Amino acid sequence: MKKLTCHCGAVEIEVNLKDGLTNLKRCNCSMCKRKGAILKNVNKEDLKIIKGEDKLNVYQFKTKVAKHYFCTLCGIHTHNLRRADPNTFGINVACLDGIDPQEIFKLDVGVNDGHNHIMDQKK
To answer: Global pTM?
Structure first.
């Protein structure tokens, strides 16, 4: 289990990274491209809020399926419930305790094409 925290420490989350820091993504949807977070997908049962659930707020837009969670005190995005698979969360890798800030920029990161998501296609 790894610990994930917001900037001020009010929110603490335990997350099970079964396969380590693999299959990392940056999403190019209108929200994610602005926050620039590197995301790691985990199953819902692999994420547990330990502290500060009352300090989390959620932002939703467009289809209102995805839920982007952030700390109401420091504003840091900790995780999101994914629209592509609502049984998974995307965690903000930079919030993992012990991650070396210099190593973040060396990680192998792909792109999730949220900009062209199938739920946004006109029929």
So the answer is: 0.83
Look at residue 21 and give its three-state secondary structure.
Answer: coil
CATH numbers and ranges of domains, the chain: 2-113 (2.170.150.70)
In angstroms, rounded to a whole number, what is the distance separating the alpha carbons of residues 64 and 67?
7
Question: 27 near 39, Cβ under 8 Å?
Answer: yes
Buried b (16+ CB within 10 A) or exposed e, 47-81: bebeebeebbeeeeeeeeebbbbbbeeeebbbbbb
Contact criterion met (CB below 8 Å) for 10 and 69: no
Summarize pLDDT for 57-92 with one digit per residue, the tens. 999 988 888 899 999 999 999 999 988 888 999 999
